[in-house]
């Protein structure tokens, strides 16, 4: 893949990647933007090795996901407090706070469950695609989705 092809592909996918990372970062726009930028730089540096033209989006999401997980691992030594009540400021996708409850609930999930939920429900990936992006088995993805749904159901007080 040459530079022009990479730029064209990124222009098509960058908003989807930013949205994915925004959900993983529970509405923290600054953190999501920083991670998106890091992921795009990593993708650019690795684009000479990219060969499968039809799977660019999945490849880019895999890089973004790994960038997110690396970031979270680096924060484990310096944990950041999670917003636990509505009164605390959360940067939502829109300023009305429409997604605030979802971001607050997502923030309580472990990163792997949050990734599976976000990829499946917000980005429309299949279980097989999620397994490829997150480098886990399909059974592990199903388990993460099940656990994540149950935890979100409890946090958001959703009836079956």
Written description of the protein model:
This protein is mostly helical and 160 residues long. The chain has one domain (3-156): Butyryl-CoA Dehydrogenase, subunit A, domain 3, CATH 1.20.140.160. It has seven helices and no strands. The longest helix has 22 residues, at 3-24. The termini are far apart. Mean pLDDT is 81; it is low at 81-96.
Features:
160 residues; mainly alpha; Butyryl-CoA Dehydrogenase, subunit A, domain 3
**What separation lies between the terminal Cα atoms?**
47 Å
Mean pLDDT: 81
Please, how many helices? 7
Could you give the count of β-strands? 0
Short description:
The chain is mostly helical.
Architecture blueprint of SSEs:
Layout: H1 3-24, H2 29-46, H3 56-75, H4 100-107, H5 111-122, H6 127-134, H7 138-156
Helix pairs in contact: 1-2, 1-3, 2-3, 3-6, 4-7, 5-7, 6-7
């Amino acid at each position: 893949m040459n530079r022009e092809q990479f730029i064209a592909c990124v222009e098509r996918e960058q908003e989807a990647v930013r949205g994915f990372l925004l959900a993983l970062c529970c509405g923290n726009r600054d953190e999501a933007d920083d991670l998106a930028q890091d992921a795009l730089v990593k993708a650019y540096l690795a684009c000479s090795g990219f060969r499968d033209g039809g799977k660019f989006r999945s490849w880019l999401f895999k890089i973004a996901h790994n960038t997110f997980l690396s970031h979270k691992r680096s924060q484990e030594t310096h944990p950041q407090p999670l917003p636990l009540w509505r009164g605390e400021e959360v940067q939502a996708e829109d300023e009305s706070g429409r997604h605030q409850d979802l971001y607050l609930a997502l923030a309580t999930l472990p990163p792997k469950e949050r990734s599976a939920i976000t990829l499946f429900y917000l980005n429309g990936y299949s279980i097989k695609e999620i397994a490829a992006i997150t480098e886990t088995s399909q059974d592990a993805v199903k388990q993460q989705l099940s656990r994540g749904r149950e935890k979100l159901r409890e946090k958001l007080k959703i009836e079956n």
